[in-house]
Structure formats: C-alpha cells, structure tokens
Amino acid sequence: MKALIIDDEKRARETLIQVASLCCPDIDSFKQADSLLSAILSIQQERPDILFLDIDLGSDSGFDVLKHFEGEALNVIFVTGHNDYVLKALRASAVDYLLKPVKASELMAAVRKIKQKLSQQQQQESLDSLLQNLNNKEESIKKITISTADSIHVIHVADIIYCESDKGYTTFYLADSQKVMASKILREYEDLLPKDNFMRVHQSYLVNLNHVMRYDKKDKNFLVTTLNHKIPVSHRLKNKLINYFDKLT
Questions:
Q1: What percent of the chain has pLDDT over 70?
Q2: Which of 39, 131, 168, 231 has the greatest number of C-beta atoms within 10 Å?
Q3: In this protein, which residues make up the domain named HTH LytTR-type (predicted)?
Q4: What is the reported pTM?
Q5: Cα atoms in the Cβ-side hemisphere of radius 13 Å centred on 196
Q6: Which residues does 35 contact at the CB level (< 8 Å), separation at least 6?
C-alpha cells in the first residue's frame, strides 16, 4: 500500500513514518506533503491508498484538503492534537483518527480498519457527515455515523427519540420507527450528543427531550415519547428531570 503523510511539521512526518515502518508492513511506500497545495498535488499524482492527514496545516486545515476532493472516496486517517469540538466531530462521524503522539498499537488498528472498509460509498458517507458537523457554526453535533457489521448509518440527531444501553451495546430508536444498534457504550454517545436536548434519565436510557410528550411522576415514574415509548426514570435522576420541566413553565 502507498501512504501519503500530510503534516506541516517535518518532525511529525518523520516520526509517523518511523512508527508505521515498524508496525505496518503492508505500507511499502511513503510520500510526504507539508501544505495544502502540495497535498492536493500529491494526491492527484500519487493516488495513495491511505492518507495520514493532520488537521492543522499552518494557515490552512486538513479539512480543506477533503473539500478539494469532495465526492471522491479517500481512505483517510486523521492525525490530531485536538481534544475539543473537532475531536467530538471526528468521533461522531465514525472516521478513523489518531491522537498525537501516535501510538503503534493505535496506528496498527487504524490501518487494519482502513483495509476492512466495507465500501467506498460508506467511507464517503462518513467523511460527508464529518464535514457537515464541522461546518455547523453552533458547534453541536447534527449527525452521527454508526458503523454496524454490514453498513454505515448516518443519523440526524433530531431524529433520535432515545438511546438504550444493553450489555455494552447502544440501540438508537428513531422517529421513523427504525432501530439501529451500535457496538459502543451509552456513555460515549452521551458525551457526543448535545446536552441541551439529551438527558440521562436512567442508567440505561438517554432521551431526546424534544421527543417527550408526557412525564408521569406519581405512579410509574416514566416518560412517554412521541411514538408512545415508555421510558423509566430512576429515582436518582428524577429531580434533575423535574427541574428541567420547571424551567419550561
């Protein structure tokens, strides 16, 4: 496989080549680019199998590289030192990324995932979702991408009614009555989804408050959603929910 490393720092490029050479024998060719222009030219000329793309390229962004090739399927592994909204967008969009300093084990896992990608269309859907999240000026996630055994689902956050946790998996219940199961714990999605709209009301349930129709707080202590789901509310989190409704009145 041919790899192109796009980073404006020479030392970072050389370090990544050194680590990849030791732990990723499938990569037999490394090319380098240090700017937006050189990255675009290198992709056009080399047609690499994998892009290691740094998010910060001096006055430009790695995302500018993607925008230039919008609509084309690229095997991208992002490399970033970010731990803020950009990182949240990467996680929500189910794209592959490495945090600096790059660890050999994480690099091997990312390359292995690239080799196992299901289809070029699904890769492009993940990148499209990422760009839309990053273009959102409110800095809240608008779409999340969920990778299952046979497909990738791009889900609008507004369409999520609630999420249910079950033994290390999370099931999304959507406004069109679909259910999508993800192989990640509920806590990961609680961290991603906007806290103004989503509330943990039970150890196993995260609810989109925009889809709540009624709260029965006397007898059964449950929420009723727009599709008539009944969601239990734990005693520990009950007051938090009541405070939310009090602010609306």
A1: 84
A2: 39
A3: 144-234
A4: 0.58
A5: 7
A6: 8, 57, 58, 60
